[in-house]
Design brief:
single chain; Rossmann fold; 32% helix; binds thiamine diphosphate; binds iron/sulfur cluster
């Protein structure tokens, strides 16, 4: 039997997107061995799992080595101001709710100068995914301690260590209202890709802390591969139980640690908008 006309005109199945479809032509300039290479690969793999076309994804960042990530993807991107990625991303998601919004950066960007935005992004619970490449140091500016640096980390810039208690980002995220909290390790790119895909699918604000070694300023972090281990328990939706686990874990357990049920921030119009001219008239001197 010869092919029928219906076969000839049948719609072509949509092409399957692979991780390569999400890579830009720009070559990363991270130090050889930096964990961020694997995180980039996990992000592109996660997007391939999700099959979201690159033009329907926006990757927003601040400043830092890790914050270079948007330029290395073929998605829309915004490489913004230090510590302000979450504020910009919130605006993008509110203006264009149909887009998938990923936010990426480092522990310095997200927990120091951006710490206030971190708290309120968790609290607002806008549907987006925040990926922090945590190397417990400011890599880009040559090795200053960050909020997640161990108090006794001795370095030229902080002789004898800072003596300051380290910030616990997962506990803070949970307490502030994040709807999904996970920890990942850059040395496991496939496991990390699965976690990112889960985080994107989960409604509301999803937070993933990725242990991503800075081999230049914290070469001892190469040993993290010997210390990370899968979380011994499955994810809970009980914030009290999650808090107890997060407060008492060793900081090296990887997996989804909390998957909550809070309603995400409502997107779209929420009432009658006031014409700009009316507001101008009201506030005119
Ligand atoms: C307003 C402002 N303050 C300070 C800086 C300098 N600065 C650039 S990146 C950075 C820290 C980056 O550390 P982190 O976010 O942990 O990223 P990493 O480089 O380790 O990936 C700092 C302090 C800046 N660019 N802008
Ligand atoms: S300085 Fe550290 S974080 Fe920055 S590219 Fe080099 S290894 Fe990576």
């Amino acid at each position: 039997m010869t092919p029928t006309s219906s076969t000839a005109t049948a719609e072509k199945p949509a092409a399957v997107l692979t991780h390569a479809n999400y890579k830009s032509g720009a070559k990363p300039i991270w130090c050889p061995g930096c964990g961020d290479y694997s995180v980039l690969s996990s992000i592109t793999k996660a997007l391939a799992i999700l099959q979201r076309p690159p033009e329907e994804v926006v990757v927003v960042s601040g400043i830092g080595c890790s914050s270079r990530i948007p330029a290395y993807t073929s998605c829309y991107g915004f490489h913004g101001v230090h510590g302000r990625a979450l504020a910009a991303a919130t605006g993008v998601k509110l203006a264009r709710p149909e887009l998938t919004v990923l936010v990426a950066g480092g522990d310095g960007d997200g927990y120091s100068i951006g710490g206030n935005h971190f708290l309120h992004a968790c609290r607002r619970n806008v549907d987006m995914t925040y990926i922090v490449m945590d190397n417990h140091v400011y890599g880009m500016t040559k090795g200053q301690p960050s909020p997640t640096t161990e108090p006794d980390w001795d370095s030229k810039l902080a002789p004898g260590g800072t003596g300051i208690r380290a910030f616990n980002p997962l506990v803070v995220a949970l307490a502030s209202g994040a709807n999904f909290v996970a920890r990942a390790f850059s040395g496991d790119p496939n496991g990390t890709a699965d976690l990112i895909a889960k985080a994107v699918r989960h409604p509301g604000f999803s937070f993933i802390e990725i242990l991503s070694p800075c081999v230049t300023f914290r070469p001892e972090q190469r040993d993290w591969k010997d210390h990370v281990h899968p979380a011994p328990v499955t994810a809970t939706d009980d914030p009290a139980r999650a808090a107890r686990r997060l407060m008492t874990d060793d900081g090296m357990n990887v997996g989804v640690l909390y998957a909550g049920n809070r309603n995400p921030y409502p997107l779209g119009p929420k009432g009658k908008s006031v014409p700009l001219a009316d507001l101008e008239a009201e506030f005119a001197p």
